[in-house]
Amino acid sequence: MNNAYVLVTGANGPLGSLVAEDLIQAGYSVTGLSRKDAPRDFKGNWRSSDLLNGEQVRNALEGVNVGVHCASKAQRPQ
Of 77 and 40, which is predicted with more confidence? Predict the structure, then answer.
């Protein structure tokens, strides 16, 4: 078990969910962060937050050793 606490933004997206899952399997304590609710099968901790809200982000980062930013605003080209 690792002692590092990791925050993964966009943890319910295609990239963030894979990163979070791999970190959890490697023994890290992972908190997923997203505007949406946690996926049912998410095995770590979860915080719903808006990355544009500085106070919410600061609160989410308390006690975190490493942040992995996977959140994005994906759009299909017009």
Answer: 40
